[in-house]
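ok trying again, last paste got cut off:
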Amino acid sequence: MEYASDIAFTPAVKALQTRRGSRRAYARMEEGGSWQTVITPELKEFIEAQQSVFLATANTGGQPYIQHRGGPPGFLRVIDEHTIGFADFAGNRQYITSGNLAGNAKAHLFLMDYANKQRVKIWCTARVIEGDAASVAQLAPSGYAARIEQVILLTVVAWDANCSKHIPQRFEAADVEAALAARDRRIAALEAAIKQLRTKSNRTDAG
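nice, full thing came through this time. structure:
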């Protein structure tokens, strides 16, 4: 690939960009450095804050498949500037993702932060690691009740962060509950302060 973005901008894609008028802008982007290929500290922070991600694979016939992966913040772990890993929890035992990766290592990780209206797309290759206790110990989320079946390691090839257009703003239930609890505590404190002021005022008037 001449540019990192060539992983997605194939000749057919570039031809369509030319026909629809966006190729010149993307050509300038490519010449200016294209997409990044290493995990920056900012991307690491974004990745490890996620609780819900989507992992895309394809079988040897080219049929794509997208599977959800979730866990506590930090379940998706940055190992180094090129590698992301996570403990793969036992599920419905279809093994479509694992089977696809056995014949085609190409994968894609899609991360969406609805609260801050941010999304990141990561092109990578992936491999399944079975029976490696050290990898499981490294990637197992602390205190999370799930049976770990294997580990998946992803090697980053390129990544891009999209604009916030058309992303609906949504919030985690725990964050909403915490905000409401903080509001209720503030209201209670204000009501107590008002009550205290009224009591003091009544005493002054009586005197």
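cool. The first strand starts at residue 52 and ends at 58. The helical segments are 11-20, 23-31, 41-49, 96-103, 133-139, 173-206.
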